[in-house]
Design goal:
The complex is a heterodimer of chains A (433) and B (464). Chain A has 433 residues and is an all-alpha fold. Helix content of chain A is 68%, strand content 1%. Chain A folds into two domains: 229 residues; 177 residues, Hypothetical protein af1432 (Orthogonal Bundle). Chain A has a two-stranded antiparallel ribbon with strand order 1-2. The longest helix of chain A has 34 residues. With 464 residues, chain B is mainly alpha-helical. Chain B has two domains: 224 residues, no CATH class; 168 residues, Hypothetical protein af1432 (Orthogonal Bundle), CATH 1.10.3210.10. Chain B has 19 helices and no strands. In chain B, helix 2 packs parallel to helix 4, helix 7 packs antiparallel against helix 8 and helix 11 packs antiparallel against helix 12. Chain B is elongated, with a radius of gyration of 30 Å.
Chain lengths: 433, 464
């Protein structure tokens, strides 16, 4: 069997780490004070890592510290002598040390983030240290040096994004380009703060010495704190929306778990069609609440199956649902999707098409018994003339086939499994940097 | 133009004049020599001023619900105070503060006020920094010295800002009795602003150090992205939190719409639960959770057919059994919301009774979670003091007497005593919610709500 991409990445990282370790052991550690200070900073940054908060950079301080060590040219005016091998060794040792409590809590070492860290830091260090030690950058004094560091860091961030997207693609089969686009769109947030802090720390240490490390990490810590709170309130909000969505199930209008399944599958289809992360969130909320209009009905629809109702009735329920969603103060885009889920697909926004197709698939496959999924897909393909958008049906077919393959490989885990479960933080694994 | 009280106008003038005096040494040929030497680069002033105005403009163009505590881009101003002579540093704040739009009328006065207070604060910070010898520390890259002197300057900055804010004559002065003393209010404001301004001061110091270094202003600019990102995340946090609360309110309103008679009931039970929790000396976090428990206790009624909820007159045993499912429906709905904590148990058990005759599980005594015992008392109290399809509102003292009578059998005597104490002290003022023009419940409610007068259900404190 051909080796999977993530295995190759892990192997590369392991080879780089082992080589650096060997070289450092052979040559000894230069400038132990600086190495120790940066090591402590990275370890502390790792200690503040919180996985499962669905934010891109789970340990921004550690990332900024490692990058600034890779790009360190001077300490308080004296040139440094450490090479790229020492940078990788120090970063690796400090990261491992900092993740000891995390492993102790049963979190398990996260292989993907570690491999990414080693490879990106190695890239930055290999680009900078040998050339700098050889004096190639001597002409780049003053502001030009700052710009050089910035350019190198941006290049490193680009490589990191490509690596992250490739790992996600290899692990889950998500299409590569939209994933890469999502990774790149996340850079202006905490990613920019990490890049800027990495550059500022390297320059600050060059100007005032190691004092710069504690002082210059304060703004990044503040940013990390703000991001955590934002991520926490977002997680809470998501739980509340999911509960609101279950009101229809409890009231007996829809079968149990319907909203959750439609949301999970809609997200997968949306990802396949290249929606970005914010769009996916809107899609997921809309899918969760797509049936909420039924709360306004006097009598429940049999089995909550709206896909078999007359079109006018479907539209009426959709409009009622939009009105309810508008009242809840959720993003107005969510209400717009819920409202237009029963329109002909040519007039619908993409997210509404997805919700319509996935909802119809879920209802039809549930009725169909064992052969239900296949029959349902076939019905949707035949019915695409007016109601169901063909490109969405094809995306759905791709997602389903991928998940059946994946289910075979990963021991029966399908899209209904815990990875797409609503409150499961594990789904965001690719976003932990 | 909205009239500004004369006192406020005078105050703005009192701030503007000294601010102008601070800037006076910059005028060529002025009688006052600028302190700290006349040697500085106008380029630096222009660059910092443009940076400040640009950042503030960017921050305003983003829709943000709440401003960052202590202003968004003070680091730029403080970096100016650490680099330039005080009058020049004060000038940095001027264009941004004067030119950027203000939200409310009267515009010129508000702009003058904003500019005046910043100019004075930056000038004071620069003056203090100069006096304690911070310039040399920054120039020599002596970090401990620079930290100490910057700390002194930040203290001065914060002091001037909060003093000016605290001195502003309050519009529509509060009644004498309720106003807390001015020094205490100022002290609270000062403590609240000190931490964020200290972080801003640290960032400003980093900017100043890098600005003076061979790497120049380019490197100094790189200090700002983390501050900007943290400001952005902070604003997003507030936006999302507001949206979350709106959603919870909508969840509750959905119940209220189904069950017309309980309009405002959820909010009031939340309020009463909060009063009991406070009275029992619970910490703030738990009080907040219990408020949510009260607000959401009947959310399961969403699952009960509307016909039963609005039925007039007595229910058949079959119908009663259906309605009695609502705690379990409610728990099923909220059990996935982790921040609710013990409020979820309260939703499930708020109809249990101490003697074990309640539902859904017939728990008794200490088996019933404490949160549920709190909500049970609050729920019964509000049910008695507001109109229902099966009973009319009773006066508060009668309801409390009824609760005391049932304490021990139905209700936890501790909770009842706490409610009696809390209401005895603060009274019962059910808030009128903004979207509900009618007076919401309470014993004073007039008969504005048309409703059939059904005979009270035999059991005391009986609720559906």
């Amino acid at each position: 069997m051909r080796p999977r991409l993530h295995t190759v990445v892990h192997l590369c990282a392991a080879v780089l780490a082992a080589g650096s370790l060997g070289a450092t052991l052979y040559n000894g550690v230069e400038q132990r004070g600086a190495a120790l200070a940066f090591g402590v900073l990275i370890a502390v940054g790792e200690l503040t890592r919180r996985n499962g908060t669905r934010i891109r950079e789970a340990a921004p301080l550690a990332a900024a510290g490692s990058l600034s060590y890779a790009l360190l040219g001077e300490t308080a005016g004296r040139p440094t002598q450490h090479g790229a091998a020492q940078v990788v060794t120090v970063v690796l040792a400090a990261s491992l040390l900092g993740s000891v409590p995390h492993v102790g809590r049963g979190g398990g070492p996260a292989l993907d983030p570690s491999a990414r860290r080693v490879l990106t830091v190695g890239f930055a260090a290999v680009c900078f240290q040998p050339l700098y030690n050889r004096g190639v950058f001597d002409g780049w004094g003053g502001p030009a040096h700052a710009l050089l560091l910035l350019a190198l860091l941006c290049l490193t961030a680009l490589c990191d994004a490509v690596l992250a997207a490739a790992l996600a693609h290899s692990r889950t089969g998500w299409p590569f380009l939209p994933t890469l686009r999502g990774e790149l769109r996340a850079v202006p947030g905490i990613g920019a703060a990490v890049i800027a802090t990495g550059a500022v720390m390297a320059l600050g240490v060059a100007v005032v010495g190691l004092w710069a490390l504690p002082v210059f990490s304060v703004p990044l810590l503040l940013a990390q704190l703000s991001y955590r709170r934002y991520a926490a309130v977002r997680a809470t909000y998501r739980q509340t929306i999911a509960s609101l969505a279950r009101a229809t199930e409890i009231a007996g209008y829809t079968p149990a778990g319907h909203a959750r399944r439609v949301a999970g599958l809609s997200r997968a289809v949306g990802r396949d069609l290249g929606l970005t992360e914010p769009e996916l969130t809107v899609l997921e909320y809309a899918a969760l609440m797509h049936d909420i209009g039924q709360l306004s009905l006097v009598d429940p629809v049999p089995d909550g199956a709206t896909a078999v109702l007359p079109v006018t009735e479907q539209r009426r329920i959709a409009l009622l649902g939009g009105a309810v969603v508008r009242q809840t103060g959720v993003d107005p885009r969510v209400a717009a999707i819920v409202e237009r889920q029963a329109d002909p697909h040519r007039e619908q926004p993409l997210a509404a098409r997805i919700v319509r197709v996935v909802n119809a698939y879920e209802e039809k496959s549930r009725e169909g018994g064992p052969g239900g999924p296949l029959t349902a897909l076939e019905e949707l393909r035949l019915g695409t003339a007016g109601a169901y958008a063909p490109e969405v049906v094809e995306a759905l077919a791709r997602v389903l086939s991928r998940n059946t393959e994946g289910a075979r490989e990963h021991g029966g885990r399908s899209w209904r499994g815990p990875r797409t479960g609503l409150s499961d933080p594990g789904r965001g694994w690719v976003t932990h940097g | 133009m909205e009239a500004l009280p004369a006192r406020a106008r005078a105050y703005v003038a009192c701030v503007t004049v000294p601010a102008l005096l601070c800037l006076l040494p910059l005028v060529p040929g002025s009688p006052v020599p600028p302190p700290g030497g006349a040697r500085f680069s106008w380029w630096a002033v222009a660059l910092l001023a443009a940076l400040y105005a640009g950042c503030e403009h960017l921050a305003r163009s983003r829709p943000a619900a709440a401003p960052h505590p202590g202003g968004a881009f003070h680091p730029v101003l403080l970096a100016g105070a650490f680099l330039l002579p005080p009058p020049a540093a004060a000038l940095v704040a001027l264009p941004g503060a004067l030119l950027l739009p203000v939200e409310r009328r009267p515009y010129p006065a508000r702009r003058l006020w904003r500019a005046g207070r910043l100019v004075l604060a930056v000038w004071a910070a620069g003056r203090v920094h100069l006096a304690v010898g911070g310039r040399e520390a920054v120039a020599d890259c002596d970090v401990p010295g620079a930290l100490g002197t910057a700390g002194a300057a930040v203290l001065a900055f914060c002091l001037v800002l909060t003093l000016l804010d605290g001195g502003f004559p309050a519009p529509g002065a509060l009644p004498r009795g309720r106003r807390i003393s001015a020094p205490a209010a100022w002290w609270r404001l000062f403590l609240r602003s000190l931490a964020p301004i200290t972080v801003h001061g640290l960032a400003g110091l980093m900017m100043a150090l890098l600005w003076r270094s061979p790497y120049g202003p380019v490197a100094a600019l790189l200090v700002l992205p983390p501050m900007g990102v943290s400001w952005w995340a902070f604003a997003q946090y507030h936006r999302e939190r507001a949206a979350h609360q709106a959603t919870i309110r909508a969840l509750v309103q959905a119940v209220d719409i189904k069950d017309g008679y309980t309009r405002g009931h959820s909010e009031r039970v939340g309020r009463a639960s909060m009063m009991i929790a406070r009275e029992l000396g619970m910490d703030d976090e738990r009080v907040e959770v219990l408020r949510f428990a009260g607000i959401l206790h009947d959310v399961g009624k969403l699952g009960v057919p509307t016909r039963l909820l609005t039925k007039d007159g007595p229910l058949t045993p079959e119908e009663r059994r259906v309605i009695e499912l609502h705690p379990e429906y409610g728990h099923e709905m909220v059990r996935g919301i982790s921040f609710l904590g013990e409020a979820r148990a309260a939703v499930l058990h708020h109809h249990e009774r101490l003697d074990g005759t309640g539902y859904p599980y017939g728990l008794s005594g200490g088996q019933i979670p404490e949160s549920a015992r709190v909500v049970a008392v609050a729920d019964a109290f509000d049910a008695m003091t507001s109109n229902r399809s099966y009973s009319r509102a009773r006066p508060v003292p009668v309801a409390l007497e009824e609760l005391r009578r049932c304490a021990g059998a139905h209700f936890d005597p501790r909770m009842v005593a706490a409610l009696v104490r809390a209401i005895g002290r603060a009274g019962w003022h059910p808030a009128v919610t903004a979207d509900d023009p009618r007076p919401a419940g309470g014993d004073t409610r007039p008969d504005a709500v048309p409703g059939p007068v059904a005979p009270a259900v035999g059991r005391p404190g009986a609720r559906r």
